[in-house]
C-alpha cells in the first residue's frame, strides 16, 4: 500500500511538473488568479497616470519637447530595468519580484503626487526601473504551470490588459476632471500599497518546483549579478531562442512605431477629438479582452505553437496591407480586430516558447528580456516614427509592416527553428 501511494504520488508530480509538497492543484489555481488580479490592478493604475501625465506636465510648464524627454526617460528606465527585474525574480523568487514591483509603484505615485515642479516630475520617473507588474505576474504563472498549460495561462493576462486600459483610462479621466489632476495619483498610491499587501499575503514564498532548486546553481551566473551581458548571450545560445526573439522584435516593431505616433495620427489624419480618441482606446481594450480571454487560449490548446507563430506573422502582414490602404477611422476600426489578434497571439506564443526553451531557473531573466521589447520601441520609436510620418505619411507604416512580416513569414515557412523544451 505504501509503495503504491509513493508510485501514485510520483506519477502525479511528473504529470503536473510541480511538487505536491510545494503547491497543490487548488493552491496553484488560486495563485494564478491572484496574479491576474495584481496584473489588472497594476495596469489600471498605470493607465490612470498615462492619461493624466500630459495635463500634469502642461500645468507645470513642460512643453512638447520636454514631455518627449520625460517619456524617453521612462522608456529607458523600463528597458534597462526589465532584464534586471527578471534576474531578481530568478534569484529571489517571483513573490519578492512582485512585491518589489508593487512597492516601486507606490513610490512612483507618491513622488508623482508631490510633483509641484518640473524637477520632481522627472524624479518621479525613477521608480519605473522596477515597475514590472506584467513580467512579475508572468513569472508567477510560468513557475506554477506545466508547459502545456503555459500559453493559455499567459494569454489570459491580455484580458487583464483590456481591463486595465478601459478602467484606468475611464477612472483617471473622471477623477482628474471632477476632483483635480493630482487625485488619480492618490488613488494610485493607495492602490499600489493594496497590491503590495495582496502579493505579500497571497503569493507563496516559493513558487518553483523543488526539483528545480538544485538546477538553479548550474543555470545562473556564478557571480549572481543582476545585470550581465554574458548571461543574456548565454540565454540567446539555447536552441531557437535567438530566432524566436528576433521574430518577436521585428514582427511587432512597425506597428509599435504606428502606436507611438497614434496620438498625432488620430488628430491630424483621422481628425478625432480627445473624447473620440478615448472611445477608440476603449474599443481597443474591449477587443483585447475578447481576443485574449476567448480566442488565444482555445487556439493554444488546439494548435502547435509554431503554427500559431506563423499565423500571427501572416495576419500581421495582412494588417500592414490594410493600414497602407486605410483612409478613415472606420477603416482602422475594422483593421483593429486582426491587429489585436496578431499582436496578442505573437506576444503570448513567443513568451511561452522562450520560457520553455531556457532552464526553469532562468525564466525570469527571459521574461525580463521579452519585456524590454516594448520599452525599446518606445525609446527609439518617436524619432523613427516621426520621420516616417512626416516624409511618407500614414501609409508608410502599413507598407513597412507588410514587407517585414511577409519576409518573416517566408523565413518561418522555409526554416526549421530547433526548439527544445528544457527539462528539470
Explain this structure:
The chain crosses the membrane at residues 34-56, 68-85, 92-112, 157-175, 181-203, 244-265, 277-296, 308-326, 332-354, 394-413. This protein has 424 residues and is an all-alpha fold. The protein folds into two domains: 25-207, Growth Hormone, Chain: A, CATH 1.20.1250; 229-418, Up-down Bundle (Growth Hormone, Chain: A), CATH 1.20.1250. 80% of the residues lie in helices and 0% in strands. The protein has helices at residues 2-16, 25-59, 64-92, 94-113, 118-123, 133-144, 147-155, 157-179, 183-202, 213-219, 229-236, 241-260, 262-268, 274-302, 305-325, 329-357, 363-371, 373-392, 395-414. It is globular and about 50 Å long.
Which secondary structure elements does this structure contain, and how are they paired or packed?
Layout: H1 2-16, H2 25-59, H3 64-92, H4 94-113, H5 118-123, H6 133-144, H7 147-155, H8 157-179, H9 183-202, H10 213-219, H11 229-236, H12 241-260, H13 262-268, H14 274-302, H15 305-325, H16 329-357, H17 363-371, H18 373-392, H19 395-414
Helix pairs in contact: 2-6, 2-8, 2-9, 3-4, 3-17, 3-18, 4-6, 4-9, 6-17, 7-14, 7-16, 8-14, 12-16, 12-18, 12-19, 14-16, 15-16, 15-19, 16-17
Biggest beta sheet summary: none
Please give the CATH class of the largest domain: Mainly Alpha
Task: Estimate the helix proportion, in percent.
Answer: over 70%
List how many beta strands DSSP finds: 0
Query: What's the N-to-C terminus distance?
Result: 29 Å
Number of helical regions = 19
- Secondary structure category: mainly alpha
| CATH homologous superfamily grouping of the largest domain | MFS general substrate transporter like domains
Task: Output the CATH topology of the largest domain.
Answer: Growth Hormone, Chain: A
Per CATH, which architecture of the largest domain? Up-down Bundle
